[in-house]
Amino acid sequence: MMFKVPRGTKDLLPAETGSWQAVESLIRETCRLYRYEEIRTPVFEQTELFTRSVGDTTDIVQKEMYTFEDRGGRSLTLRPEGTAPVVRAFVENKLFGSPDQPVKLYYMGPMFRYERQQAGRYRQFVQFGVEAIGSDSPAIDAEVISLAMDVYQRAGLKDLRLVINSLGDMESRNAHREALIRHFEPSIGEFCSDCRNRLEKNPLRILDCKVDRDHPLMKTAPALTDYLNGESEAYFEEVKTALDALGIEYVVDPNLVRGLDYYNHTAFEIMSTSDGFGAITTLCGGGRYNGLSEEIGGPEAPGIGFAMSIERFLMALEAEGKMTETESRLDAFIVALDEESRKEAVKILGNLRREGIAADMDYMNRKMKAQMKAADRQKAGYVIVIGEDELKNGAAGVKNMAEGTQETVEFTRLAETLKSRS
Ligand code: HAM
């Protein structure tokens, strides 16, 4: 029987992990500049955490969660996203008690959603996300958006489009909700069963319906922007002013709604506008979630954050021809010509590595020529040759591969010599 990687997941082979590492270190470095610290939460949580926060009428909760019962009869779910777990950890570990507020956190790790597989959409994917919890200053909204843009721009991406919107506060959202119910209720019998369910629970989701999208009532539905109260409008203005101050370009799209229920006020997405990019153009999504902490039993702690998948980040780099990878350097390769030399090579290899020199040797009993070829393939900086004569003299032949020069160096001075050359 041949086993295959599960649908919607993939192996990352060494040919790809170099570019992953390059992106990961750029992300960590950017977070350091913005003073966001790393948090790591478990990959599974109590199921209810997600049904409550992401929302039980959302696609994620209704169709996409990997939920299972453990041997103790508890319902657990592989995390489909990182915000709810991070806010849970913020509440449970009483981070709200720290004098340094807001608490600025970032995470990078696998998320799981049972979605239809296509380019840029996987069932296991890695999200990098940040959450700034404890402040409702519009300036922190701009900081979070700026961090996301910065990560992409430092990686060299240019074809980006930042779209922002305001979903308003609870009062505005409730007023809009009532208006939607008034709009759809008289004709709800003409809609699908999903929409009929959504009418009371979450009428906003009716607007996302794929079955009824051509119903005439869809086009005339009341727009959220018409229901923003003065406070929400003023907040949104301040976010825009802060973005302007940072020199960040954006487009306001009143139709931008996000697929998770915990959002209010600022919502944003970053898209790739590159020609080479596939059908799914959203690279990053985020927004404000005042009230989420209270929803899951914590104190009042307004928050904002975003998440982006590394998979789509790399697709965008590929589309713009900006792929880079961390270089895995091989400083020295030892070519040993017989059994005795191989024993000495093992010893030298150990010494070199202890001194911080990346070194390797042949373990396939290859002939000298094949060993030289292997050193070449792996782009070794130096080749150290040990044979019968070298053993007798206690000194190896050291070849500088870039320059083609050769010298003889005592075994005991190999590490020191190579270090002085690097
Ligand atoms: P989201 O929009 O569901 O938001 O996901 C954010 C990003 O995760 C997407 O823009 C995309 O880059 C990536 N993503 C989502 N699903 C997949 C998938 N199946 N395959 C590959 N990439 C995917 C959230 O998850 C929120 N927690 C973001 C947030 C943080 N809001 C506030 N703080």
UniProtKB/TrEMBL annotation:
Entry-linked InterPro entries: aa-tRNA-synth_II, aa-tRNA-synth_II/BPL/LPL, Anticodon-bd, Anticodon-bd_dom_sf, His-tRNA-ligase, HisRS-like_core, HisRS/HisZ, HisRS_anticodon
Residues at which L-histidine binds: 81-83, 113, 127, 131, 258, 262-263
Record's keyword terms, sorted: Aminoacyl-tRNA synthetase, ATP-binding, Cytoplasm, Ligase, Nucleotide-binding, Protein biosynthesis
Annotated ranges, domain Aminoacyl-transfer RNA synthetases class-II family profile: 1-325
EC numbers, comma separated: 6.1.1.21
Statement: the UniProt record of this protein carries the keyword Ligase: yes
Pfam families associated with the record: HGTP_anticodon (PF03129), tRNA-synt_His (PF13393)
Assembly description: Homodimer.
NCBIfam families: hisS
Protein name: Histidine--tRNA ligase
Name of the gene encoding the protein in the UniProt record: hisS
